[in-house]
Specification:
Length: about 140
């Protein structure tokens, strides 16, 4: 299920370098209401609203769905088109209450997690990563 028919045109008219992640999500939503978009994601209108206003970062599963709908990458959603790598905290995201930075083992595992199609496997791996992060942060 893709909604990218209008996204390409909107991206041509908008400088994605100047957009926040929430604004990039808004571009992907296109002409759909937040309620319609939320239904496509299995989320509420309120959830879409807080994503678009950068109050909360969507889960990796949700980011993957949004990226798929917009025919973009999760990396593009998280960091924008000009990210060149590095460990800048501005390009990090929060997972299970912890800041995850590019280049860390957690980041690498979570990037791989997005590509897994089996939801049960994905959730088991996510739980493993949560446990790992919790242990690492306590130690």
């Amino acid at each position: 299920m893709r909604i990218s028919r209008d996204v390409t045109e909107k991206l041509k008219q908008t400088d994605p370098e100047k957009l926040t992640m929430g604004q990039r999500i808004r571009v992907i939503r296109g002409d759909r209401t937040q309620t319609e978009f939320g239904e496509m994601l299995g989320k509420s209108q309120d959830a879409v609203s807080v994503y678009e206003t950068d109050q909360i970062t969507p889960s990796l599963n949700t980011l993957a769905k949004i990226a798929d709908m917009g025919n973009v990458t999760v990396d593009w959603l998280l960091r924008g088109p000009s990210y060149k790598g590095g460990k800048n905290i501005n390009h990090s995201f929060v997972f299970n209450g912890y800041v995850i930075r590019p280049g860390t083992p957690e980041w690498t595992i979570l990037e791989k997690l997005v590509a897994i199609n089996d939801e049960k496997t994905k959730e088991k791996i996510a739980e493993f990563v949560r446990s790992y992060i919790s242990i690492e942060k306590k130690g």
